[in-house]
Amino acid sequence: MTKILFICHGSICRSPMARFIFQNEIDKLGLHDKYIVDAKAVSREEIGNDMYPPAKRCLDKHNIPYVKTSSSQVTRSDYDYYDYLIIMDEHNRYLLERIVGNDKDKKVYTLLSFAGLQSDISDPWYTGDFEECYKDIVKGVNGLLTKIL
Description:
Elements: E1 2-8, H1 14-28, E2 35-41, H2 53-61, H3 76-81, E3 84-87, H4 90-100, E4 108-110, H5 124-127, H6 130-148
Parallel strand pairs: 1-2, 1-3, 3-4
């Protein structure tokens, strides 16, 4: 079983969107029993909060199913448990390293690196552009699927 953790600042926009977009793709491929997928935050600001309503509306627009979430912060034990820790931007890497230490096992990746890009996924909390965020996440998820399949 491959274990994947999507990580962003508060885990109310980008990482839960990535979780559900990835989950939808593996469900369509009949591979839901081969993966454990979750989303967490590097900050504590949104602990306990559900996914941000505009993120839900964006997923609804693209017919991506989701469930109620509750943001939680990534822990040191998450680094040991998950095979892939996938961050949305380089600032997430900095904060993640403060929590889990050095990436000695080379498990931390930016999502867009799987699409061959060295860029961040913009935080729609600040930009308001959930559609651009969605498109970037889809690019990264497609690249991730290509790598792991």
